[in-house]
Give the backbone structure.
Amino acid sequence: MNGRSRYRMMAGLTVLDTLPEGFLDCSPRDLHRLFSGPTIIELPGRRQPPLFVSVLLHGNEDSGLEAVQRVLRARAGHTLARGLVLLIGNVAAAREGVRRLTGQPDYNRVWPGTLDHIGTPEAKAMAQAHELMLSRPVFAAIDLHNNTGLNPHYSVVCSLDARTLHLATLFTRTAVWFAGMPGTQTASLAGKLPAIAAECGQPGTPANAAAAARLVESALDLGDFPDHPVRHQDLDLYHTMALVRVRPEVSMSFGGDRAELRLDPALDHMNFRELEAGACFGETGHPMPLDIVDEAGRNVSSDFFSTEGGALRLRREAMPAMLTCDERIVRQDCLCYLMERVPTHALPPGAVS
Ligand SMILES: [Zn+2]
């Protein structure tokens, strides 16, 4: 079995129709020996259309790769229940064990719809993957991720149609509706096919890879999506209200005593907890150390936090997600998202009953 003998190269994106030798046991750091860059592998199955699964859009998030390796090892010598199109994302960052290389755009911010990275090689490669997925029927799309704080497993959805919500409940009952940060894969596919990003907890944890593998197996085994709406008791759906960043010029620490913003070192324990107004995130001498934008990109910092008396406190009820105590991630990505529960009556008709 040698996929390299039968590959098609599109500018920036390699497309193979078999697994390269050694793939099933390859570590993320060694993938560069098999792949020169982002690569799609199309595998046959008994049913069509295929399931699209992407892994390692963030190079340090290894659960997705381990999950597909588990699924494919378990099916070795057998045809898959459904065709599978696998995207291996940021091979160069995976080699270094980082989310993205310095100077490289984020592979989950460069999909069609991106505003900041138009014309970059990464945007061109992901646009090719996107075009390939939309040029023919695809059953569903699952983008496998890890995150750094203490988070439960949850899905991110950018559309509230019943098929997308059914796909989300294959993973877990917790889903976050995110109208979409420009350039994410899930946002770029939403409305065109059922698409979720599955946030599988922290990397390097076999249980998280196992959960991701169960999701992929369930989706491969699913004959069709049910016609009926998702039952409301099967789904806890939250909506993102705002994205929270630390202002780049503000020095920060987790529990240190010198920085302008001293965050609670156990902040990530607040993830997915519905917090009351007044919940304290840390101490600061700065009038507003955070930069908070809503989904329309408006600055809403003072709607969500106050700094009276040097305490950084929530001004209103909110539930944080993806809070991390890793300063590098805070600087590269964000401190957290703030969410609220979506009431059933706010959902489109036919999605949830
Ligand atoms: Zn990720």
About this structure: Residues 241-341 form one domain. The pocket of zinc ion is lined by residues 58, 61, 108, 145 (CB under 6 Å).
